[in-house]
């Protein structure tokens, strides 16, 4: 209930604003984290909200803070980091954490209570 209350308030407040393409909600962050979250955080991941999950969008190089300096309609400060990852995906091997795509079948007598 708390998640919906906070997120709904933010969403309604943003209804008629012009949004930058990579704008992320501020409320309810960290609600869902994959088993790899700490490892990804330690690798300097910048997380974005994907259906309530914290999902890495890009990784800052060592010594750089994984932050968006200024939202923009153009290329932002993190673009070179993302570009390097993109090239690595094309030319080498990568591993993606797709936990946010998980689906669970919950059934049985207490399924409603569990959910």
Structural summary, described in words:
The protein is of the alpha+beta class and 115 residues long. It is 30% helix and 11% strand. The protein has four helices and two strands. The chain has a two-stranded antiparallel ribbon. β1 (45-50) and β2 (53-59) form a beta hairpin. The longest helix is centred in the C-terminal third of the chain and has 13 residues, at 79-91.
Structural topology:
Blueprint (H helix, E strand, L loop, with lengths): L1 H12 L23 H6 L2 E6 L2 E7 L19 H13 L19 H4 L1
Antiparallel strand pairs: 1-2
Question: Which terms would index this structure?
Answer:
115 residues, alpha+beta, two-stranded antiparallel sheet, 4 helices
Helix content: 25-40%
Runs with pLDDT <50, length 5+?
A: none
Strand content: 5-15%
C-alpha Rg, in Å?
A: 17 Å
Q: What is the H/E order?
A: HHEEHH
């Amino acid at each position: 209930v708390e998640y919906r209350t906070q997120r709904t308030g933010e969403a309604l407040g943003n209804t008629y604003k012009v949004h930058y393409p990579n704008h992320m909600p501020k409320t309810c962050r960290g609600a869902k984290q994959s088993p790899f979250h700490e490892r990804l955080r330690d690798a300097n991941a910048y997380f974005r909200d994907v259906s309530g999950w914290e999902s890495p969008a890009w990784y800052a190089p060592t010594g750089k803070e994984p932050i968006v300096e200024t939202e923009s309609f153009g290329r932002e400060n993190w673009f070179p980091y993302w570009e390097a990852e993109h090239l690595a995906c094309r030319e080498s091997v990568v591993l993606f954490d797709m936990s946010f795509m998980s689906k669970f079948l919950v059934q049985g007598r207490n399924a409603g209570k569990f959910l």
